[in-house]
Specification:
This is Starch-binding protein. Keywords: Cell outer membrane, Membrane, Signal. Belongs to the SusD family. It is found in: Cell outer membrane. Residues 247-556 form the RagB/SusD domain. The structure is a single chain. By secondary structure, the protein is mostly helical. Helices cover 37% and strands 7% of the residues. The protein contains 19 helices and ten strands. It has helices at 4-12, 36-44, 83-105, 115-140, 152-155, 163-180, 195-209, 212-225, 234-237, 264-270, 285-290, 317-321, 379-382, 394-407, 413-426, 445-459, 466-472, 476-479, 541-546, and strands at residues 63-65, 248-252, 281-283, 327-329, 332-334, 342-345, 350-353, 389-393, 483-486, 522-526. The strands form five sheets. The protein has a two-stranded antiparallel sheet with strand order 1-3. It has a two-stranded antiparallel ribbon with strand order 2-8. A two-stranded antiparallel ribbon has the order 4-5. A hairpin with a 4-residue loop joins strand 6 (342-345) and strand 7 (350-353). Helix 4 packs antiparallel against helix 6, helix 4 (115-140) packs parallel to helix 7 (195-209) and helix 7 (195-209) packs across helix 14. The chain starts with a helix and ends in a 10-residue tail after the last helix.
Length: 556
């Protein structure tokens, strides 16, 4: 086991030009980086999903998996041997090692690579390294700061650097990228990192760190670039039609031939049983109850809400995100009611047994809900997900700007306009059509904070932002210590109370309380979050076995 991680880090600096995570032999470092092509290959190799992405939605109160039941984050069992922890750490430092090798050796190609190209490639690499460190410090706190290739004999003396020092390093690196990356590329290079990408990572990093002025200025700079805009259709943004949208700031291309991310099992987990899926990876009741009504009020305050018709009179993002009952979905009418034993199939043009009710199929959705957001109608036929992976989009910058300004006590028309742009898009209207959607007007800081937190939740489900929002708002200890609830078993279901037995009370943080519903709901799993330790992840045990100088976070 000894030397495992640092050997991988050191060897990883030699394999930048391959599509294989396994490093090449150490000797290749001496001959690589000798021309523009090799420099570009080294950079391009870091445009892979192993090195990009937001947190798993299953780490939050938005999503639950029937088969997995729990995980180390929501189960409170995270430890230093956790596979997710080790993979996160290893991939981050693998990318960092490759960037460090590139920067140390790039001048070999100086005689045959235009200076402008060299500078742009370096800016991309330094952005990627900054992104890795920005994620490491939000999850682990203090971590080793490596900016040069590390010789094996020196690796055992490395220790953790203060998080604040690394944060400043991240901002400095991003400023270099901002200064040296183009605003846009030609049509053939649309997915490369840009000035806007560097600004967006800076804005997100600053927001997570509570550096409000920096978050405000960086997000405003993205807005002022004038190259990004909200996509016309919220639902289409997450399908093939949205992959070239002006809303996308950073995304990682995926294609069916590669199948590098999610294959048949993932697809089947996310689609209905009628369509050949498992109905296993599910929206929670918590996320459904977060969507306000069309009068702009939460469900426990709005007279428009009816728990027996929970999709009616709701923010349109609800039906763009979760499959509405009694609507056609993937070729079948989706109706999980226990008495709906058959449904009409538009795919087969006849009524068929309804495998999406647990009265017919015991393992149909336990919450009664299915994801719609990002799921293509062709998934059941192809059993592969190849939608591009969105990392950051323009809507996040609008809400980042609004939140930072709000926290600075600078609530003005630009703040309200930023939020209202997103709300108007949800309703398919322009921001100035104030009678066509529930606008935000003149909110004080406390009221606006509630609006912004709800807005982030209903705008970004399944995009991996909820976990870090719960962490930075110090809400994880509350949101992730509640039960996951679902529908009662069919025999126990009170038909008069289907699907939901009453109006869910929401607290000041927008979190639902289901304790008063008794047996009209079923506890599927109990979340548990240890606030004494889980706001930071543990340093991987394998890392500390290699180098005891790297200390452990408290509680692990």
């Amino acid at each position: 086991m000894k030397k495992t991680l640092f050997l991988l880090l050191l060897a990883g600096t030699t394999g930048c030009h391959t599509l294989d995570l396994n490093p090449l032999s150490e000797a290749s470092t001496g001959t690589f980086y000798s021309n523009q092509t090799e420099l570009e290959l080294a950079v391009n190799d870091l445009y892979r999903l192993a090195f990009w992405g937001n947190d798993n939605e299953l780490f939050s109160d938005n999503e639950w998996h029937r088969g997995q039941l729990t995980n180390a984050v929501i189960g409170g069992t995270m430890n230093a041997d956790d596979a997710n922890v080790q993979t996160f750490w290893l991939n981050s430092y693998k990318a960092i090692a490759r960037v460090n090798s590139f920067i140390a050796n790039k001048d070999r190609a100086a005689t045959n690579t235009p200076a402008a190209v060299m500078l742009r490639l370096e800016a991309e690499m330094r952005l990627i390294r900054a992104y890795q460190y920005s994620r490491l410090i939000t999850h682990f706190g203090d971590v080793p700061l490596l900016t040069d290739p590390v010789a094996l004999e020196d690796s055992y003396d490395i220790s953790r650097k203060n998080q604040a020092e690394i944060l400043q390093f991240v901002f400095d690196e991003l400023d270099f990228a901002i200064a040296n990356l183009p605003v846009s590329y030609g049509a053939s290079e649309t997915k490369r990192l840009t000035k806007g990408a560097a600004l967006a990572i800076k804005a997100r990093t600053a927001l997570y760190a509570g550096k409000w002025e920096i978050a405000r200025d960086a997000s405003k700079a993205v807005i002022d670039l004038g190259v990004y805009a909200l996509h016309g259709s919220y639902s289409q943004l997450f399908l093939k039609a949205g992959e070239t949208s002006k809303e996308i700031i950073i995304s990682v291309p995926r294609d069916e031939k590669q199948q590098v991310f999610n294959g048949a099992g993932y697809v089947q987990d996310n689609i209905s049983r009628n369509a050949g899926g498992f109905g296993a990876q599910l929206p929670t009741r918590d996320i459904m109850d977060a969507y306000e009504c069309t009068d702009g009020k939460p469900i426990d305050e709005s007279p428009l809400y009816n728990p027996q018709a929970p999709f009616k009179n709701r923010d349109p993002r609800l039906t763009a995100t979760i499959v509405e009952f009694n609507t056609q979905w993937l070729g079948y009418n989706y109706m999980p009611h226990p008495d709906s034993l058959t449904v009409f199939s538009s795919k087969e043009n006849r009524r068929v047994p309804n495998k999406d009710t647990r009265a017919v199929a015991a393992f149909a959705s336990f919450t009664g809900l299915l994801w719609k957001k990002g799921i293509d109608q062709t998934w059941p036929d192809r059993l592969v997900e190849d939608n591009d992976a969105i990392v950051i989009r323009y809507a996040e910058m609008l809400l980042t700007y609004a939140e930072a300004k709000m926290e600075l006590g600078e609530i003005d028309e630009s703040v309200l306009n930023a939020v209202n742009q997103i709300r108007a898009r949800a309703y398919g209207v322009s921001v100035d059509q104030t009678n066509a959607y529930p606008t935000i007007t003149g909110a004080n800081a406390a009221a606006l904070r509630k609006v912004l937190r709800r807005e982030r939740r209903v705008e970004f489900p399944r995009e991996g932002l909820r976990y870090m929002d719960l962490i930075r708002w110090k809400l994880a200890e509350k949101a992730l210590s509640t039960p996951v609830i679902g529908l009662p078993d069919p025999a126990a279901q009170n038909r008069a109370k289907w699907p939901f037995p009453g109006v869910t009370p929401l607290d000041d943080d927008g979190l639902g309380d289901y304790s008063a519903f008794g047996t009209d709901v079923k506890v599927l799993s109990q979340r548990s979050f240890d606030k004494s330790r889980q706001y930071l992840w543990p340093i991987p045990a394998v890392e500390r076995r290699v180098n005891p100088n790297i200390t452990q976070n408290a509680g692990y």
